[in-house]
Amino acid sequence: DCTHFFHFSILLRSHSSLKTVRSIVFKTINKYIADYKWQLVLVYSCLIFDAAFDTVLRASLKYIIDAAIVPKNYNLLILILSLLAAGAILYAAIGLFANFLGARLGVLIVNNIRRSVFEYLQNLSMEFFGRRSAADIVKCVMSDTQHVEYGLITTGLSVVILEIGSILFSGIFLFLLNWQLAVISCIGLTFCTIAPAKIAQRATEESYQLMEKEGQIASGVEENILSQSVVKIFGMETQMVKNFNTDLNDLKRVYIRATFLSYLVQKIPMIGFVMTQIVTLSVGASMTFSNVISVGTLVSYQLLLVGLNLNILALTSSVPYFIDGVAALRRINDILSEVPDVQDAPDAIDLPHFHSDIYFDDVSFSYSQDRGGVKNLSLKIRQGDFAVFVGQSGAGKSTIVNLLTRFYDPDKGRILFDGIDLRDATVRSLRSQIGLVSQDVILFNCSVRENIRMGYLQATDEQVEAAAKDAEIHQFILSLPQGYDTLVGDRGGQLSGGQRQRIALARALVRNPAILILDEATSALDPATEAKILTTIEHISKERTVIFITHRIANALLADVTYVMENGSLVVSD
After folding, report:
1. Distance between CA atoms of residues 77 and 74, nearest Å
2. How far is residue 479's CA from residue 107's CA, in Å, rounded to a whole number?
């Protein structure tokens, strides 16, 4: 019987990609269940009572037959049945309570995991989000955490406690009934538990690969949905379906391997158990025929053995879910083990309000070996300047924005903010002084008012409206059906490009930034709309430092200072 626990110990030690699966399960899960440990102890105590009563109920047949029915002891029979009835009522009540508390704990713990992952995502650098697809991250936060809950908490740990408890109690009674038959059973059950261990190791890895493939397919579906205009205009529907079918065929191969191996782990013990049961039944029947053991002992023993079979079935049936839970927890761990590239130094200081200049001191940076950024860049932007950066796509203009906002840190050189190296300052104190409007405007699926307030969450309605007036979008907002409370739709889909840009500009202005950055903010607009927004920008630039990124040289006419970029280097400054 102890070999069942040994089997699961092997499963917990069998993952090769991390130090041990045991460390993944117990160390990672422990921090999420720590706040609920006494509730878990209560649930597991209920499960142990469940296992004990179920075993006693099977073992009681020996006494019902041998001590009450055969000698015709009616009073003893009534006593035994009465005790079992009282135990059954308690068993039902405790079982219902354990189920309710287990369900409640399951959602609390899985939400704890989701909260932890989501909070950690907020602290990761832009490099991570450029490397991992949004759909795969969403799958990890939602779907993978469900696998963890069902495989390791709701089904996994609960089933393990219940069934191992039943196995241990059954084992004790089996030895009490007849130690010779119990030894035969243990020999057979040892094979049932050790044989699948190596398969479990491979099954866990295949399950992880399956989840990775599902994440890739989710990314492809998301990309297809967001790119439907391109797909349709270029007649790519057939090709998209062909590519999707290829991905599904790859998924099918991985799924078959993972599922077959998982259920092989489940079925091998069952085959071994059937053989063990036949042997013990044959030996037990012979011993009963020879009056070595009583009929009650044989019946009770076989009933306990059948119950043990059900315990093993439940235990091994949970193994595929357990494997999925471990694989899912590994994917969650992949995110939680990410180290942000950009983070505050231990002795970081808060930047004072911008009053002098920003200086790029021999700055070099590249996103990867295949994707350049800027090299040996030295320039100065003074407080109050309207600075325009001009250059073709890939010239390094947006990289300047990414470095100035500390989405990335330089590989070489320094960026000085009023003489302070940005790496010596807190990220929050830097970004609190910056308002950013990008070419790809991101609006949230909420009201116009809340979208503008995203720039400064403490902004009053008056401040929101003042920012909208500065962005010259106030009158349009008032013309909407619900005014400022009108929903903008998914990614601002209910608005035109120019309207989205102005709301994004209002969102940047509501925080009253010392530095306003416009990264190709007008490049996707028609000339008339662009001209109007440029007029607005020229007006508001009198009160703050403006950094304007563009590929149109004509926009340099607005500038106090112009920098022309090419291949990551500064070629002209004026």
Report:
1. 5
2. 44
Residue 518 tokens read as: 């416009």
How confident is the model over 172-211, as pLDDT tens digits? 888 888 888 878 777 777 776 666 666 777 777 777 788 7
For 496, other C-beta atoms within 10 Å of its C-beta total 13
Single out the residue of 242, 240, 249, 246 nearest to residue 221, CA to CA. 240
Task: Tell me the C-alpha distance between 377 and 368, whole Å.
Answer: 18
Name the DSSP letter for residue 522.
Answer: T
Contact of 114 with 145, CB cutoff 8 Å: yes
CA distance 171 to 183: 10
Look at residues 202, 197, 222, 54 and name the one whose alpha carbon lies nearest to residue 134: 222
For the purposes of burial, counting CB atoms within 10 Å of the CB of 374, is it exposed (0-12), middle (13-18) or buried (19 or more)? buried
Q: Alpha-carbon distance 568 to 397, whole Å?
A: 8
Pairing type for strands 357-365 and 434-438 reads unpaired
- Per DSSP, the three-state class of 97 is helix
- Contact between 145 and 117 (Cβ < 8 Å): yes
Whether the CB-CB separation of 283 and 181 falls below 8 Å is answered with yes
Contact 356, 547 (CB under 8 A): no
Q: What is the DSSP letter of 25?
A: I
pLDDT, tens digit (0-9, with 9 covering 90-100), for 238-284: 888 888 888 888 888 888 888 888 777 767 777 777 777 788 778 87
What distance in Å separates the CA atoms of residue 317 and residue 352, rounded to the nearest whole number? 61
CA angle 545, 546, 548 (to 5 degrees): 160
Give the chain's length: 574
Give the residue carrying structure tokens 């094979």: 191
What CA–CA distance (Å, rounded) separates 361 from 305?
A: 78
Question: Which one-letter amino acid corresponds to residue 392?
Answer: Q
Return the structure tokens found at 45: 């105590």
What's the CA gap between 88 and 156, in Å, rounded? 25
Predicted structure pTM score: 0.68
Give the largest Cα separation in the chain, rounded: 112
Calpha distance 170→311 (Å, rounded): 10
Q: Is 383 exposed, middle or buried, given 0-12, 13-18 or 19+ CB atoms closer than 10 A?
A: middle
